[in-house]
Backbone:
């Protein structure tokens, strides 16, 4: 998906499509990169087509819901699920290992920190589920991480709309 396609879908179908795209993006759905979708949302805010506060609220909720699903997959699927997934997709094993290391080393801020690193951010919730991280700590770190991530990417589209739209 490119920025023009994202702009078109969100302009045409509105907040529901935006919510679904962000939800799927936080689930690490293929072909839905945050670096395209969220700046497109920021561009639409800069054009006055969307309200910034409404967008932030909806994208944060979508992000938290996506991360919750991954947490529960890890929680109930356990280490067996993670091993099976990394065997099927061996390129992700180093990222999973790095995620586990960061969470273990930086107990309180590890989850937040991991949510700000591309690739790792999409694995952290599943790993936290496998590790049986306290649910309230998971929700707090997820919310903080999602707010920061969404704010940065949506704001980049808002601030640099002209740059993104140049051909």
Residues:
């Amino acid at each position: 998906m490119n920025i023009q396609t994202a702009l078109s879908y969100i302009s045409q179908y509105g907040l529901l499509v935006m919510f679904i795209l962000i939800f799927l993006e936080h689930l690490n759905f293929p072909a839905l990169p945050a670096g395209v979708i969220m700046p497109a949302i920021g561009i639409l805010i800069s054009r006055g087509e969307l309200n910034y506060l409404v967008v932030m609220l909806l994208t944060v909720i979508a992000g938290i819901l996506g991360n919750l699903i991954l947490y529960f997959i890890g929680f109930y699927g356990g280490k067996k699920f993670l091993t099976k997934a990394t065997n099927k997709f061996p390129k992700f094993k180093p990222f999973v290992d790095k995620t586990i290391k960061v969470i273990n080393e930086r107990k309180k801020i590890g989850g937040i920190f991991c949510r700000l690193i591309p690739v790792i951010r999409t694995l952290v919730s599943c790993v936290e589920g496998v590790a049986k991280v306290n649910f309230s700590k998971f929700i707090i770190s997820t919310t903080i991480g999602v707010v920061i991530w969404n704010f940065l990417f949506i704001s980049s589209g808002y601030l640099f709309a002209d740059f993104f739209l140049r051909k």
Q: What stands out?
A: DSSP finds nine helices and no strands in the chain.
